[in-house]
Amino acid sequence: MPAELDARLASVRERIARAAARAGRRPEDITLVGVSKRQPAEAVAALVAAGLAHCGENFVQEAREKIPRVAALLGAGARAPRWHFIGRLQSNKAKLAAELFDVVEVVDRPELARALDAHAAAAGRTLDVLLQVNVSGEAQKGGAAPDELEALARAVAALPRLRLTGLMTIPAAAERPEDVRPAFARLRELRDGLCRDAGGLTLPQLSMGMSADFEVAIEEGATIVRVGTALFGARGGMA
Q1: Which CATH number does the domain housing residue 126 bear?
Q2: Which of 42, 78, 114, 120 has the most neighbouring CB atoms within 10 Å?
Q3: DSSP E strands: which ranges in 51-178?
Q4: 173: helix, coil or strand?
Q5: Is the pTM of this model over 0.70?
Q6: Does residue 238 lie in a domain region?
Q7: C-alpha–C-alpha distance, residues 173 and 101, integer Å
């Protein structure tokens, strides 16, 4: 199984490199986050040992069990991955999120940001955070509306234990990767406008694109891509 995982990691990296070349970008400027929700810790540890440096989890309770298990499997002295939280986050789970994760990509309201800031301070940590934007306007999805973004960015930037680094989105599902391109372009435009209008913010990160469409996202400026199935296979198994 490790050989199969190694091959998947190499394939995804090659696809990232080709997409970056098409966009005139450097592949090393794009961070691959392996989405490890519902995947066994053994598979995560194998990919980290093979060079995966960032992992993403959607559920705080699952991550509470998995993160120390991955560390134990890697062994003392091994370089741990940076852990990204990429699922819906309730304010009552902010304490655990602030203790477990290095990056929280889903800040979409001031009260969540304030809770993360307070719990990060209590834990003696500083968190990198991204603002999740609901570019498609789907009611069932998390994310701030575009017209709320500037006020949210200003509020988060003022919190001492949060380091605001960029924007994230999960666009509406589409049959073809090309159909998602406008959503990715919209997030880039929102980021550029925010940097221009919101008091000199620097927001280098754009987290967008998953297994089915990350190449299009890279062509539109993604600096973080969140890839699960293409790395691990089907959730809950290694198919």
Answers
A1: 3.20.20.10
A2: 120
A3: 54-57, 82-85, 103-107, 127-132, 162-168
A4: coil
A5: yes
A6: no
A7: 27
